[in-house]
Design brief:
Layout: H1 9-19, H2 26-38, H3 41-48, H4 51-65, E1 70-71, E2 77-78, H5 80-106, H6 112-124
Antiparallel strand pairs: 1-2
Helix pairs in contact: 1-5, 2-3, 2-4, 2-5, 3-4
Length: about 130
């Protein structure tokens, strides 16, 4: 069955991105969410990155999604497109955070003692 518009929020966000062959980056999504919450570039940048990096990432995201996400003057506010994509980008950000948490709990981390022991063993038995 073919759909012109995905029925799920995540599907719509992917469709928006894939139509433009964009390279949506998770950091851009996180920066977008920070700016949505702060409605101030300086405050949002303090949370995650330098202000020029935040501005560049938001501009790149706007190019990828095909339009302005924020009105910049007289004050920062979401545009219609920004309001439309916000729930989808929020879901992407939350899913990425959750995937990272799951991966951390499932991936064994070497303990300091085990790493130190392995370093000592490898120095005692160098391979020729």
């Amino acid at each position: 069955m073919e759909h012109d518009q995905p029925s799920e929020p995540f599907g719509l966000a992917l469709a928006l991105v894939s139509k433009r062959e964009a390279t949506l980056q998770i950091q851009q999504v996180h920066y977008f969410m920070a700016l949505c919450e702060e409605l101030n570039f300086t405050c949002a940048a303090r949370r995650c990155v330098s202000q020029p990096s935040l501005s560049n990432a938001i501009s790149a995201l706007e190019r990828e999604l095909g339009g302005a996400l924020f009105h910049r003057k007289p004050s920062i506010a979401l545009t219609g497109l920004g309001r439309m994509v916000r729930p989808y980008l929020d879901e992407i950000a939350r899913n990425a955070d959750y995937a990272r948490e799951v991966a951390r709990t499932l991936t064994p981390r070497p303990s300091i003692h085990r790493s130190a022991r392995q370093a000592v063993e490898s120095s005692e038995h160098p391979s020729n």
